[in-house]
Design a protein that fits this description.
This protein is α/β, with parallel strands linked by helices and about 290 residues long. The protein is built from 8 helices and 9 strands. About 35% of the residues lie in helices and about 15% in strands.
Length: about 290
Amino acid sequence: ITVMHTVIDTVGANRLVRSIAFNAANAICGMIERRPPPEDEERPLIALTEFGFCERAAIHLREMLKDRYEVVSFHAQGWGDRAACELVRQGLFHAFIDLVPAGFSEHLLGGNRMAGPDRLEATKDLPIPYILTPCGFDMISCGPYERRDRHDPLWTSRRLSERKLFVQDRMRVQARTSQEEMEEIAQKVAERLNGLKYKELVKFVIPERGFSSLSVKGGPLYDPLSDRAFIETLGKCLSLEIEIVRVKAQANSRAFAKAIVRALQRALRKKVESASETRISGRPSS
């Protein structure tokens, strides 16, 4: 029996999934000499982070992009985020759609899905489009539920038992982020993004009517004041070189996915324009 960790989400037979499956088959056959699988070089690769509370958004995005791009999905539970960022740094992808960058807020607040302090810096020195959203910033992953009664530092320091909670099961619990935490997240996100070299290729797309399926009107973590605090703080702190797109829709809507795709297209056009200007001037872009 051979067990191989795919690292990425196996959503569709994209180039990386095919390569992993090919390697697994060779391993099962006794690690015979590897012959690389045929590769589809026509469609550029795009990295996409996602999780269950924004699943419909990810489905919409893959559907809208499939004809021109090959989308590789990463489950944003911490390790998946890190894998996505590492592969982006290696130059494997044409663009990065960070639908769920919440590994950064989880790092700030101490949640289960934390992905480290450099979570938003994968494209720091890379001239590729980086499209991100606030999906997942509306919650802290704090399971298992038994931590509530064990004087757990996260639960006690942030008084999570007094907040709105979504309990999927005993192991998976999401607590609503407070207004103060959302302001802190926005400030720190702006600091990281302002430090990126190619800020003109960064777009921040915000679904104003809910950052996930949990925080829409009627959802268990609905708190429009906290979401608004994030939006306003980000607007004050983020560099003017970075475009903010506000969409009057919730995260899992087609309208939001369309806004992300349009932002990606604008960033790609800007990349082409910058490359043309560089060739004409004969100087590297700043």
